[in-house]
Amino acid sequence: MCDALLRDCPELVRLFVENGLDVGQFLTWGQLENLYAGAPEGSLLHDLLERHQGTSHEPSSPPEYLLLERSLSDCHLSQVARILHELLGDVCAPFYVGLHSAGQKGIGAKGLSPKAEPLYRTELSPNPWTDLFIWAVLLNRGEMAMYFWEMAPDAVAGALVAARILRELSHREMEAEEAASMKNLALRFENLAIGVFNECYRNGEPRAYKLLVRRSSLWGGATILHLAHQADALLFFAQDGVQSLLTQNWWGEMDQSTPVWKLLLTFFCPPLIFTDLITFRSMDDDLRLDPSQPMEMDSLDTDVKTTVGYMMSENTDPPSPPSPRRFWLRRWRQFWGAPVTAFLGNVVMYLLFLFLFSYVLLMDFSAPPAGPSASEIILYIWVFTLVCEEVRQGCFVGSQPVLQRVRQYLQDTWNKFDITALLLFILGVICRLFPDSFESGRTILCLDFMVFTLRLIHIFAVNKQLGPKMIIVGRMVREYMRWV
Known about the structure:
Blueprint: H1 2-6, H2 10-18, H3 23-26, H4 29-37, H5 44-51, H6 77-88, H7 117-121, H8 128-138, H9 142-151, H10 155-172, H11 176-203, H12 205-213, H13 224-230, H14 234-237, H15 240-251, H16 260-268, H17 308-311, H18 324-336, H19 339-363, H20 374-395, H21 402-410, H22 413-432, H23 438-454, H24 456-459, H25 466-481
Helix pairs in contact: 8-9, 8-10, 10-11, 10-13, 11-12, 19-20, 19-23, 20-22, 22-23
């Protein structure tokens, strides 16, 4: 069996299983380590394992990683754990750690002290099919990975994890043919996830919604929505079932047909929340599942701003009439807790920022030594908060090393756009402070105002009328630039 796995013979592995081989009794932590140690020398996995051999632990690595003794000649699952942590980020809980720690659950082998290594190597894996699936995906063995995916539980989450891993590996693969193979296999797994979810959605919409937000204990407490976001699974997000849930999340407990002018009016006049200007869903209107079907509410993602908790309520008894105070608090939470309200507030504040910026440049921009006016000082404070937000996004979001966080932050084009706008603003302010360069500083700030205004393209891309047109124009410009 071990030779069939190492030599990439999926048909032989399938034959072993069909003739009575119990994979649960075959795969031990030691066998799994031997499989990783047998990675071909020219493979990307072999290079990644060598890179993590004998190196000092990273600050972001979990403390359990320190319990494993590293050897230049041996392959330990702590090295695999670091590789998976780099590829999957913070969505999934750390893999292969805390094998003997009480209360810690995960997939596959966990970290262990050197003295207990012989004991842990002989222990059986609780999820052998999933461990073999991860191993095959890391080696980019498509047929083997497909077979293990069919046998492993949690098919949708597993397919999205495979898509994420393969797309990350394709960026690190130096050979173009191998990288293209990884991208194609990632697309196959994404299509498999789409097929399974659509089948669930056709059989029952509430159950499909629950599937999207349910925390998977097999994949470290991650939800399918989080995994799809990490895998950049745009095709998965385009499915009707996913879009339906996201639309409900976007509007919260407000009616989805609420006009924008009503939201703006209520935003600037909060007492209108308690009137009938905006229609809110009542508890009776929330979707519920069949009470005969037990729900696993503890596994739902409570961090997502969603009304799925109401949609999956098992209580079918009519709610008692709420008191006026509870009614007011509920209405207040329903409006301000909706993501559409937060987005609308962000847009309004950004437009006010652009208005203040233009007012300062046109009406209240005094030359030195008069010094900055009150409105100009407010503008500086506002821009300082934007700088703090960009620093937070680039350096303090996630548990990866700082350099890796910054590298991931700079991969987003709009983040580069924000950095350019802020650097131009700082340069303009510095030039504005001196009489000789005052006009140059004003010119730079005017150009910077144009950059901040172009940022509205990203904000209004969520509009269902403007968004697709912006994407079309952007692609046309990219195609045109190839000929320029």
